[in-house]
Amino acid sequence: MPVLDAQAQVRPPRTRVYPRPAPPTDSLTDELVGKEKEFANPSVLGQGPSKGLIFHYERTTGFDITSNSRSSDFTDRSGRVSNNDRFIVKGYIPVWNRPHLKMVVGVNYEREEFEFENRPTGYTLYDELEEKGLKTLGTQLVVLRPIDERNFILGRVKGELNGDYTSSELRLKDYLRMSYELVYGWKKSPTFSWGIGAQLGYTFGRRSIYPAIMYNRTWSDHWGVEALFPARVLVRHNASAKSLLFAGYDVNGLSYILKFRETLPIDPTLTTVELRETELKVRGRWEREIYDFLWFGAEGGYRYNNSFDVFDRRNGRTKVIDNKLAGTPYFSLELFIVPPRRFLKQ
Protein backbone atom coordinates (compact mmCIF):
# COMPACT_ATOMS: atom_id res chain seq x y z
CA MET A 1 0.00 0.00 0.00
CA PRO A 2 2.74 2.52 -0.78
CA VAL A 3 0.46 5.00 -2.45
CA LEU A 4 -1.94 5.23 0.47
CA ASP A 5 0.93 5.65 2.92
CA ALA A 6 2.26 8.56 0.86
CA GLN A 7 -1.13 10.24 0.79
CA ALA A 8 -1.46 9.92 4.54
CA GLN A 9 1.77 11.86 5.05
CA VAL A 10 0.47 14.92 3.11
CA ARG A 11 -1.47 17.18 5.48
CA PRO A 12 -3.72 19.88 4.07
CA PRO A 13 -3.30 23.39 5.45
CA ARG A 14 -5.54 24.37 8.35
CA THR A 15 -7.11 27.24 6.40
CA ARG A 16 -8.07 26.69 2.80
CA VAL A 17 -6.95 29.54 0.49
CA TYR A 18 -9.06 30.50 -2.53
CA PRO A 19 -8.00 32.98 -5.21
CA ARG A 20 -10.16 36.04 -5.67
CA PRO A 21 -12.80 35.52 -8.34
CA ALA A 22 -11.86 37.23 -11.57
CA PRO A 23 -14.24 40.07 -12.48
CA PRO A 24 -16.14 39.78 -15.75
CA THR A 25 -14.22 41.44 -18.55
CA ASP A 26 -14.92 42.84 -21.98
CA SER A 27 -12.06 42.19 -24.38
CA LEU A 28 -12.70 45.39 -26.32
CA THR A 29 -12.84 47.47 -23.15
CA ASP A 30 -9.65 45.89 -21.81
CA GLU A 31 -7.77 46.62 -25.00
CA LEU A 32 -8.76 50.29 -25.26
CA VAL A 33 -9.10 51.54 -21.70
CA GLY A 34 -6.96 49.09 -19.78
CA LYS A 35 -7.72 46.30 -17.33
CA GLU A 36 -7.20 48.50 -14.27
CA LYS A 37 -10.13 50.48 -12.91
CA GLU A 38 -9.85 54.01 -14.26
CA PHE A 39 -11.00 57.34 -12.90
CA ALA A 40 -13.77 59.09 -14.79
CA ASN A 41 -13.09 61.24 -17.84
CA PRO A 42 -15.28 62.65 -20.64
CA SER A 43 -13.87 60.53 -23.48
CA VAL A 44 -15.64 57.42 -24.77
CA LEU A 45 -14.69 54.45 -26.89
CA GLY A 46 -14.79 55.14 -30.60
CA GLN A 47 -13.66 58.75 -30.48
CA GLY A 48 -10.77 59.75 -32.70
CA PRO A 49 -7.23 60.12 -31.35
CA SER A 50 -6.21 63.15 -29.31
CA LYS A 51 -4.74 65.94 -31.44
CA GLY A 52 -1.38 67.34 -30.44
CA LEU A 53 -0.49 69.70 -33.31
CA ILE A 54 -2.99 70.98 -35.91
CA PHE A 55 -2.51 72.83 -39.21
CA HIS A 56 -5.80 74.05 -40.69
CA TYR A 57 -6.69 75.98 -43.86
CA GLU A 58 -10.22 77.11 -44.73
CA ARG A 59 -11.66 78.97 -47.72
CA THR A 60 -15.09 80.13 -48.85
CA THR A 61 -16.54 80.92 -52.24
CA GLY A 62 -17.50 84.53 -53.03
CA PHE A 63 -20.37 86.20 -51.19
CA ASP A 64 -22.07 89.59 -50.92
CA ILE A 65 -21.77 91.98 -47.98
CA THR A 66 -24.20 94.78 -47.16
CA SER A 67 -23.31 97.45 -44.58
CA ASN A 68 -26.05 99.65 -43.12
CA SER A 69 -24.78 102.65 -41.16
CA ARG A 70 -26.13 103.32 -37.69
CA SER A 71 -23.92 106.36 -37.20
CA SER A 72 -23.24 109.59 -39.06
CA ASP A 73 -19.56 108.61 -39.18
CA PHE A 74 -20.25 105.98 -41.84
CA THR A 75 -22.35 105.60 -44.96
CA ASP A 76 -24.29 102.67 -46.33
CA ARG A 77 -22.32 100.43 -48.65
CA SER A 78 -22.50 97.05 -50.32
CA GLY A 79 -19.76 94.99 -51.90
CA ARG A 80 -18.62 91.51 -52.74
CA VAL A 81 -15.98 89.38 -51.06
CA SER A 82 -14.24 87.22 -53.65
CA ASN A 83 -12.95 84.84 -50.95
CA ASN A 84 -12.50 84.57 -47.21
CA ASP A 85 -9.48 82.58 -45.97
CA ARG A 86 -8.55 81.30 -42.52
CA PHE A 87 -5.20 79.90 -41.41
CA ILE A 88 -5.06 78.15 -38.04
CA VAL A 89 -2.24 76.50 -36.07
CA LYS A 90 -2.96 74.86 -32.71
CA GLY A 91 -0.86 72.85 -30.28
CA TYR A 92 -1.63 70.98 -27.06
CA ILE A 93 0.93 69.82 -24.48
CA PRO A 94 0.14 67.72 -21.36
CA VAL A 95 1.86 69.38 -18.39
CA TRP A 96 0.45 67.26 -15.55
CA ASN A 97 -0.84 63.71 -15.76
CA ARG A 98 -1.89 62.06 -12.50
CA PRO A 99 -4.90 59.84 -11.76
CA HIS A 100 -6.62 62.61 -9.77
CA LEU A 101 -5.51 65.60 -11.84
CA LYS A 102 -4.70 66.15 -15.51
CA MET A 103 -3.72 69.48 -17.09
CA VAL A 104 -3.13 70.40 -20.73
CA VAL A 105 -1.79 73.71 -22.04
CA GLY A 106 -2.83 74.82 -25.52
CA VAL A 107 -1.63 77.60 -27.82
CA ASN A 108 -3.18 78.84 -31.06
CA TYR A 109 -2.57 81.33 -33.84
CA GLU A 110 -5.28 82.22 -36.36
CA ARG A 111 -5.49 84.69 -39.21
CA GLU A 112 -8.62 85.55 -41.20
CA GLU A 113 -8.29 87.42 -44.49
CA PHE A 114 -10.85 89.06 -46.78
CA GLU A 115 -10.36 89.82 -50.45
CA PHE A 116 -12.82 92.32 -51.94
CA GLU A 117 -13.60 92.84 -55.58
CA ASN A 118 -12.79 96.25 -57.14
CA ARG A 119 -10.29 97.21 -54.45
CA PRO A 120 -9.55 99.58 -52.93
CA THR A 121 -13.21 99.85 -52.17
CA GLY A 122 -13.14 103.38 -50.76
CA TYR A 123 -15.02 102.18 -47.68
CA THR A 124 -13.07 102.35 -44.41
CA LEU A 125 -14.22 99.04 -42.94
CA TYR A 126 -13.66 97.00 -46.12
CA ASP A 127 -10.21 98.43 -46.76
CA GLU A 128 -9.16 97.88 -43.13
CA LEU A 129 -10.23 94.25 -43.26
CA GLU A 130 -8.41 93.58 -46.51
CA GLU A 131 -5.11 95.27 -45.72
CA LYS A 132 -4.61 94.15 -42.11
CA GLY A 133 -6.71 91.01 -41.64
CA LEU A 134 -8.07 89.66 -38.35
CA LYS A 135 -5.69 87.83 -36.04
CA THR A 136 -5.97 85.67 -32.94
CA LEU A 137 -3.10 84.71 -30.66
CA GLY A 138 -4.18 82.65 -27.67
CA THR A 139 -3.36 80.23 -24.92
CA GLN A 140 -5.54 78.05 -22.72
CA LEU A 141 -5.37 75.75 -19.73
CA VAL A 142 -7.61 72.67 -19.61
CA VAL A 143 -7.99 70.94 -16.23
CA LEU A 144 -9.61 67.53 -15.71
CA ARG A 145 -10.29 66.65 -12.07
CA PRO A 146 -11.57 63.07 -11.75
CA ILE A 147 -13.44 62.65 -8.48
CA ASP A 148 -13.92 58.88 -8.63
CA GLU A 149 -14.78 56.20 -11.18
CA ARG A 150 -18.10 57.90 -12.00
CA ASN A 151 -17.71 61.67 -11.63
CA PHE A 152 -15.37 64.35 -12.92
CA ILE A 153 -14.98 68.12 -13.26
CA LEU A 154 -13.71 69.67 -16.49
CA GLY A 155 -12.57 73.29 -16.58
CA ARG A 156 -11.03 75.57 -19.18
CA VAL A 157 -9.55 79.07 -19.02
CA LYS A 158 -8.67 80.75 -22.31
CA GLY A 159 -7.09 84.09 -23.15
CA GLU A 160 -6.82 85.47 -26.69
CA LEU A 161 -5.55 88.61 -28.36
CA ASN A 162 -8.12 89.33 -31.10
CA GLY A 163 -7.89 92.14 -33.61
CA ASP A 164 -6.22 93.74 -36.60
CA TYR A 165 -2.96 94.45 -34.76
CA THR A 166 0.55 94.25 -36.11
CA SER A 167 3.55 93.12 -34.08
CA SER A 168 4.65 96.71 -33.49
CA GLU A 169 1.30 97.92 -32.09
CA LEU A 170 0.18 94.91 -30.06
CA ARG A 171 -0.94 95.95 -26.58
CA LEU A 172 -2.30 93.38 -24.14
CA LYS A 173 -4.98 95.55 -22.53
CA ASP A 174 -6.42 96.64 -25.88
CA TYR A 175 -6.91 93.22 -27.49
CA LEU A 176 -7.18 90.65 -24.67
CA ARG A 177 -10.36 88.55 -24.53
CA MET A 178 -10.94 85.98 -21.76
CA SER A 179 -13.36 83.03 -21.75
CA TYR A 180 -14.15 80.31 -19.21
CA GLU A 181 -15.83 76.92 -19.18
CA LEU A 182 -16.82 74.59 -16.33
CA VAL A 183 -18.60 71.22 -16.61
CA TYR A 184 -19.53 68.63 -13.99
CA GLY A 185 -19.77 65.22 -15.59
CA TRP A 186 -20.79 61.61 -15.11
CA LYS A 187 -19.05 58.62 -16.72
CA LYS A 188 -21.84 56.08 -17.02
CA SER A 189 -19.81 53.50 -18.95
CA PRO A 190 -16.81 53.32 -21.31
CA THR A 191 -19.22 54.29 -24.11
CA PHE A 192 -21.27 57.01 -22.41
CA SER A 193 -20.39 60.21 -20.55
CA TRP A 194 -22.32 63.42 -20.07
CA GLY A 195 -22.17 66.62 -18.07
CA ILE A 196 -23.76 69.98 -17.38
CA GLY A 197 -22.12 73.33 -16.83
CA ALA A 198 -21.72 76.85 -18.17
CA GLN A 199 -19.55 78.84 -20.53
CA LEU A 200 -18.60 82.51 -20.38
CA GLY A 201 -17.27 83.68 -23.71
CA TYR A 202 -17.89 85.00 -27.21
CA THR A 203 -19.47 82.02 -28.96
CA PHE A 204 -22.54 84.13 -29.73
CA GLY A 205 -20.64 87.33 -30.60
CA ARG A 206 -20.86 89.45 -27.47
CA ARG A 207 -19.46 88.23 -24.18
CA SER A 208 -22.19 86.32 -22.36
CA ILE A 209 -22.79 83.34 -20.12
CA TYR A 210 -24.82 80.41 -21.40
CA PRO A 211 -25.48 76.81 -20.36
CA ALA A 212 -23.41 73.93 -21.70
CA ILE A 213 -24.50 70.30 -21.98
CA MET A 214 -21.80 67.78 -22.82
CA TYR A 215 -22.96 64.48 -24.32
CA ASN A 216 -20.54 61.84 -25.64
CA ARG A 217 -21.96 58.45 -26.53
CA THR A 218 -21.04 55.49 -28.71
CA TRP A 219 -24.04 53.34 -29.61
CA SER A 220 -22.32 50.63 -31.60
CA ASP A 221 -19.05 49.74 -33.30
CA HIS A 222 -19.81 52.29 -36.01
CA TRP A 223 -22.03 55.06 -34.60
CA GLY A 224 -21.76 57.72 -31.91
CA VAL A 225 -22.35 61.37 -31.06
CA GLU A 226 -20.08 64.08 -29.67
CA ALA A 227 -21.78 67.25 -28.45
CA LEU A 228 -21.29 70.37 -26.37
CA PHE A 229 -24.77 71.81 -26.79
CA PRO A 230 -25.73 74.44 -27.91
CA ALA A 231 -22.32 75.28 -29.45
CA ARG A 232 -21.60 71.99 -31.24
CA VAL A 233 -23.31 68.70 -32.13
CA LEU A 234 -21.64 66.04 -34.30
CA VAL A 235 -22.79 62.54 -35.25
CA ARG A 236 -19.82 60.20 -35.73
CA HIS A 237 -19.47 57.19 -38.01
CA ASN A 238 -16.47 54.92 -37.44
CA ALA A 239 -15.89 53.55 -40.93
CA SER A 240 -12.77 51.77 -39.66
CA ALA A 241 -10.06 52.13 -37.02
CA LYS A 242 -8.30 54.54 -39.38
CA SER A 243 -11.23 56.44 -40.90
CA LEU A 244 -13.96 58.54 -39.23
CA LEU A 245 -16.86 60.53 -40.67
CA PHE A 246 -18.74 63.37 -38.93
CA ALA A 247 -21.87 65.39 -39.68
CA GLY A 248 -23.46 68.17 -37.66
CA TYR A 249 -23.14 71.85 -36.87
CA ASP A 250 -20.88 74.37 -35.08
CA VAL A 251 -21.62 77.82 -33.72
CA ASN A 252 -18.53 80.04 -33.64
CA GLY A 253 -18.16 83.57 -32.39
CA LEU A 254 -15.36 86.07 -31.85
CA SER A 255 -14.88 89.66 -30.80
CA TYR A 256 -12.17 91.62 -32.65
CA ILE A 257 -10.72 95.06 -31.93
CA LEU A 258 -10.11 97.23 -35.01
CA LYS A 259 -8.08 100.45 -34.94
CA PHE A 260 -8.58 102.82 -37.86
CA ARG A 261 -5.36 104.08 -39.44
CA GLU A 262 -7.08 107.16 -40.85
CA THR A 263 -9.07 109.67 -38.82
CA LEU A 264 -12.79 109.78 -39.51
CA PRO A 265 -13.78 113.24 -40.80
CA ILE A 266 -16.95 113.65 -38.72
CA ASP A 267 -15.73 112.29 -35.37
CA PRO A 268 -11.92 112.16 -35.06
CA THR A 269 -12.21 110.66 -31.56
CA LEU A 270 -13.73 107.43 -32.92
CA THR A 271 -10.49 105.57 -33.59
CA THR A 272 -11.26 102.07 -32.27
CA VAL A 273 -14.26 99.82 -32.86
CA GLU A 274 -15.27 96.28 -31.89
CA LEU A 275 -16.31 93.73 -34.52
CA ARG A 276 -18.60 91.00 -33.19
CA GLU A 277 -18.88 87.94 -35.38
CA THR A 278 -21.18 84.92 -35.02
CA GLU A 279 -21.61 82.16 -37.58
CA LEU A 280 -23.31 78.80 -37.92
CA LYS A 281 -21.68 76.02 -39.94
CA VAL A 282 -23.58 72.97 -41.16
CA ARG A 283 -20.77 70.61 -42.00
CA GLY A 284 -19.52 67.19 -42.96
CA ARG A 285 -16.02 66.00 -42.09
CA TRP A 286 -13.71 63.10 -42.90
CA GLU A 287 -10.64 62.16 -40.85
CA ARG A 288 -8.17 59.56 -42.08
CA GLU A 289 -4.89 58.17 -40.78
CA ILE A 290 -1.97 58.71 -43.15
CA TYR A 291 0.71 57.24 -40.92
CA ASP A 292 0.95 56.04 -37.33
CA PHE A 293 1.09 59.59 -35.86
CA LEU A 294 -0.15 61.67 -38.81
CA TRP A 295 -3.81 62.20 -39.78
CA PHE A 296 -5.58 64.11 -42.52
CA GLY A 297 -8.90 65.96 -42.30
CA ALA A 298 -11.19 67.30 -45.03
CA GLU A 299 -14.34 69.27 -44.35
CA GLY A 300 -17.06 70.97 -46.35
CA GLY A 301 -20.39 72.58 -45.71
CA TYR A 302 -22.38 75.79 -45.67
CA ARG A 303 -21.62 78.84 -43.52
CA TYR A 304 -24.46 81.07 -42.38
CA ASN A 305 -23.40 84.39 -40.86
CA ASN A 306 -25.65 85.58 -38.07
CA SER A 307 -23.81 88.80 -37.26
CA PHE A 308 -20.75 90.76 -38.32
CA ASP A 309 -21.55 94.04 -36.63
CA VAL A 310 -19.36 96.96 -35.63
CA PHE A 311 -19.71 98.70 -32.25
CA ASP A 312 -18.28 101.91 -30.84
CA ARG A 313 -15.39 100.79 -28.65
CA ARG A 314 -15.77 103.79 -26.33
CA ASN A 315 -18.90 102.38 -24.68
CA GLY A 316 -19.29 98.94 -26.27
CA ARG A 317 -23.05 99.25 -26.66
CA THR A 318 -23.61 101.56 -29.63
CA LYS A 319 -23.78 99.78 -32.98
CA VAL A 320 -22.28 101.91 -35.73
CA ILE A 321 -22.45 99.47 -38.68
CA ASP A 322 -24.92 96.63 -39.20
CA ASN A 323 -23.27 94.16 -41.61
CA LYS A 324 -25.06 91.38 -43.44
CA LEU A 325 -22.91 88.64 -44.96
CA ALA A 326 -24.57 86.25 -47.37
CA GLY A 327 -24.34 82.54 -46.67
CA THR A 328 -21.68 80.68 -48.59
CA PRO A 329 -20.24 77.19 -49.11
CA TYR A 330 -16.81 76.54 -47.63
CA PHE A 331 -14.18 73.82 -47.50
CA SER A 332 -11.16 73.15 -45.33
CA LEU A 333 -8.09 70.90 -45.21
CA GLU A 334 -6.23 69.84 -42.11
CA LEU A 335 -3.16 67.92 -41.00
CA PHE A 336 -2.76 66.92 -37.38
CA ILE A 337 -0.31 64.94 -35.29
CA VAL A 338 -1.54 62.40 -32.72
CA PRO A 339 0.23 60.20 -30.14
CA PRO A 340 1.80 57.12 -31.81
CA ARG A 341 0.08 53.82 -31.06
CA ARG A 342 3.13 52.41 -29.28
CA PHE A 343 2.76 55.15 -26.63
CA LEU A 344 -0.94 54.39 -26.11
CA LYS A 345 -0.23 50.69 -25.55
CA GLN A 346 2.22 51.32 -22.74
Backbone shape: globular
Q: How many discrete structural domains? A: 1
Query: Unreliable runs, pLDDT <50, ≥5 residues?
Result: 1-35
Based on helices, strands and strand pairing, what is the structural class?
mainly beta
Q: At the fourth CATH level, what is the homologous superfamily? A: monomeric porin ompg
Provide mean pLDDT, rounded. Answer: 86
Task: Give the topology string: H per helix, E per strand.
Answer: HHEEEEHEEHEEEEEEEEEEH
User: Roughly how many Å apart are the termini?
Assistant: 56 Å
Instruction: Kindly provide the radius of gyration, computed on alpha-carbon positions and rounded to a whole number of angstroms.
Output: 27 Å
CATH topology grouping:
Porin
Q: What composes the largest sheet?
A: 16 strands, antiparallel
Name the helicity range: under 10%
Provide a count of the helices: 5
Beta-strand proportion: over 45%
Tell me the name of the CATH class: Mainly Beta
What is the architecture at the second tier of CATH? Beta Barrel
Number of strands: 16
Features:
346 residues, mainly beta, 16-stranded antiparallel β-sheet, 16 strands, 9% helix, disordered N terminus
Brief overview, please?
With 346 residues, the protein is mainly beta. Helix content is 9%, strand content 59%.
